[in-house]
Design a protein that fits this description.
The complex is a heterodimer of chains A (290) and B (239). Chain A is mostly helical. Chain A contains ten helices and two strands; from the N terminus they run H-H-H-H-E-E-H-H-H-H-H-H. Chain A has a single domain, classed as ABC transporter involved in vitamin B12 uptake, BtuC (Orthogonal Bundle), CATH 1.10.3470. Chain A is 74% helix and 3% strand. Chain B is an alpha/beta fold. Chain B contains eleven helices and ten strands. In chain B, the strands form two sheets. Chain B has a six-stranded mixed β-sheet, with helices on both faces. In chain B, strands 2-1-4-5 form a four-stranded antiparallel β-sheet, covered by helices on one side. The chains are: A mainly alpha (290), B alpha/beta (239).
Chain lengths: 290, 239
């Protein structure tokens, strides 16, 4: 029971960490509070479902397709919709308000399209639905795969941002956007790429989620909320913070649901969130570093 | 090499810079002297592309127009700025700051050589490569800022009040470093309140007052100029 719960918690936490990393890029580097973030996730889930149901395409293939699609979609959204807001906003607060309002509208547009195309029912498909024995507990193979994928993609992103000059430039824009041009960084381009990279992460998260969870066209909001909590817990713009906070959140949810009461999971999540905000207002690991 | 003509900068109704013209020749070191609020920082920021000058003015590097060119492309053209207050990436490490200095295409291929050179000039930075810049002293952060600018292989290095907030012994060290950079052939355009020290390493100087150039001359002449002595040297004996 304990091992099963632990692994279920890690799987959920890994998923939260993965999607939160994308949001932390968009919020920490691009300074866009993207309320339509969860809809990008669910759109990718639907893509994986549609390809699996109609053409019997392996979700791993969908993952490879979804990442660049998420990137391109977010790149276009930033250029068409958000860049004008950035250009006209005089302060960071004004941009935050504008971006919240604009992406709140975008949320309903994407959600509406998905409702029209797929309806409002719970959706799932079967993939690697067999048990694997781990320390005496049987764990669904698709969940294990989801955990491995989340850690691999999240770890890859961390390495990219930490050890490449391009990634270091993105972090430089996160910590000092006004100074970045002085070393030759085109800050506008960097924030657009960071936003697009966040969208790619969201799409990856969506495909991974669809492998083991049911979802509906309106589930996106839940993921936006959870990702936001993880981002703030881990420190805005902080990838390792998002990873740790995501795992903590997943473990807490699962253990509370198993050992206390499923009805108290959300209460436990917000209690921890509140505690961290009171105890360390800038998150467990502080603001943007890596 | 650098030609500035009739450059004006306004912030709303406030005119920070009024039709300023100046030039810096290849390998020359030029200092701009002026009181607080005279428009010195605005001048450097306008040349660097960080603020947009009023139409009608001109900034040219080797005859190539640079006005209305965004800051990251001004750096690409060979003009680096060490801004007032240093403008380092405080949350990143020393080595990350220096590597980013060579982010510009013009500097990518010479990054390794430039890094060795910066470490020669500032041995302390070599020892502290992994340290987060925010945890360093003001003098060390200034080294990071200058080192980062040198990483971009600049032809013209602009420094905005580099000695501000440094202990006297560090100020002396700083001007030795700048003299060293100057000998390596890089042109320097320095804004300073430390008149005596900056004139001692300069070829020429301009006097900026309320956004206008009110005087210019060779460094040696300016030190002896009664107007300069009255305006600055009486109060600028900090070294």
């Amino acid at each position: 029971m304990f091992v099963t719960t632990l692994i279920a918690g890690l799987v959920l936490g890994g998923t939260y960490a993965l999607v939160a990393m994308g949001l932390t890029l968009q919020y920490g580097i691009s300074r866009i509070m993207n309320l339509a973030y969860g809809e990008t996730i669910i759109a990718a889930s639907f893509l994986a479902y549609a390809l699996s149901a109609s053409f019997n395409i392996n979700p791993l293939v969908s993952l490879v397709l979804a990442a660049p699609l998420g990137f391109i979609f977010s790149y276009l959204i930033y250029g068409l919709m958000l860049r004008p807001l950035v250009a006209r906003s005089k302060t960071a607060v004004a941009l935050e308000i504008d971006s919240i309002l604009a992406t709140f509208g975008l949320l309903f547009v994407i959600q509406g399209v998905m409702l029209v195309m797929f309806g409002g029912n719970y959706i799932s498909y079967t993939y690697m639905n067999f048990g694997v024995d781990i320390l005496g507990a049987s764990v669904a193979a698709n969940r294990l795969l989801a955990l491995v994928l989340a850690l691999a993609i999240g770890g890859g992103l961390y390495l990219l941002l930490t050890y490449t000059l391009w990634g270091t430039a993105l972090r430089a824009v996160a910590v000092a956007p006004g100074v970045a041009p002085l070393v030759g960084i085109d800050a506008n381009r960097a924030v657009r790429l960071a936003f697009a990279l966040g969208g790619a992460l969201a799409a990856c998260g969506g495909v991974v989620i669809s492998m083991y969870q049911t979802f509906t066209a309106t589930t996106g909001v839940v993921f936006t909320m959870k990702a936001l909590i993880v981002v703030i817990m881990g420190g805005v713009g902080n990838l390792l913070g998002a990873l740790s906070a995501g795992l903590i959140l997943g473990l807490v949810e699962t253990f509370v649901a198993t050992y206390v009461s499923p009805g108290l999971t959300l209460a436990a999540v917000y209690l921890i969130f509140l505690g961290i905000l009171l105890w360390r207002p800038s998150g467990l690991f502080g603001r943007a570093r890596r | 090499m650098l030609e500035v003509r009739q450059l004006s900068v306004r912030y709303g109704k406030h005119a920070a810079l009024h039709e300023v013209s100046l030039s810096v020749a290849e390998g020359e070191t030029v200092v701009i002297l002026g009181a607080n609020g005279a428009g010195k920082s605005s001048l450097l920021r306008a040349i660097a592309g960080l603020v947009t000058p009023e139409p009608g003015g001109e900034v040219k590097l080797d005859g190539r127009p640079l006005n209305a060119v965004p800051a990251h492309l001004v750096l690409e053209a060979g003009i680096a700025l060490v801004p007032e207050g240093r403008g380092v990436f405080a949350d990143l490490s020393v080595i990350e700051n220096l590597r980013l200095g060579a982010y510009a295409q013009r500097a990518r291929n010479s990054a390794a050589g430039n890094l060795a050179r910066v470490f020669d000039i500032f041995p302390r930075l070599r020892e502290r490569q992994r340290q987060t810049v925010a945890t360093m002293s003001g003098g060390e952060q200034q080294m990071v800022a200058i080192g980062r600018a040198l990483m971009s292989s600049p032809r013209l290095l602009m420094l905005d009040e580099p000695s501000l907030g440094l202990a006297p012994i560090l100020v002396q060290e700083l001007f030795e470093v700048l003299a060293n950079v100057r000998r390596s052939g890089v042109s320097l355009l320095i804004v300073e309140q430390n008149v005596r020290a900056s004139l001692s390493i300069s070829d020429r100087g301009y006097l900026l007052e309320a956004g206008r150039i009110v005087g210019e001359g060779g460094a040696a002449d300016l030190i002896d100029d009664p107007a300069v002595q009255r305006a600055f040297l009486g109060t600028a004996s900090r070294v």
